[in-house]
Amino acid sequence: MKRLLRNSGPMMRFCSLSSQNVLKIEDVLKQVRIFSNSDIIKYSKLTHDSNPLHFDLEHAKNTGFSDLPVPGILVASLFPRIIASHFPGAVYVKQTLEFKSPVYCGEEITGEVQASNIRQVKEKYMAKFTTKCFKDGGILVIDGEATTILPTLAMNKLEGC
User: Any idea where the MaoC-like domain is (predicted)?
Assistant: First the structure.
């Protein structure tokens, strides 16, 4: 609960490592975010996920965690947000996830998507992205892959890079 007082809201920062305005293979798009207890409470209310792992410190510690972990799916929500912020109207088709390490409130998490395959389908584009989240100087917390349908390869420019 002490983190609830310290982390009252999410901190987010977007960045695109592409030098051009058009998505190409190997381009990397990132978002940095710090999750708070308030985020977990809102997530729980919205999803009806009341797993005691995220609310009962004793339960979390008995399960092997050092603190209350942020729900993995909440952390993974960085991926569609990154893609949709650069490509409004993008449609998520598929996402695989492998949870590698826990995330705790107050940790700075970097969500990263990297274009690995792009092909045109009629007037739209099917794009595959490797998806990763890191904490604390490069510790991999989530690894996966996403497939999306993009209306265009032109990227919205974002502030904060």
Answer: 35-125
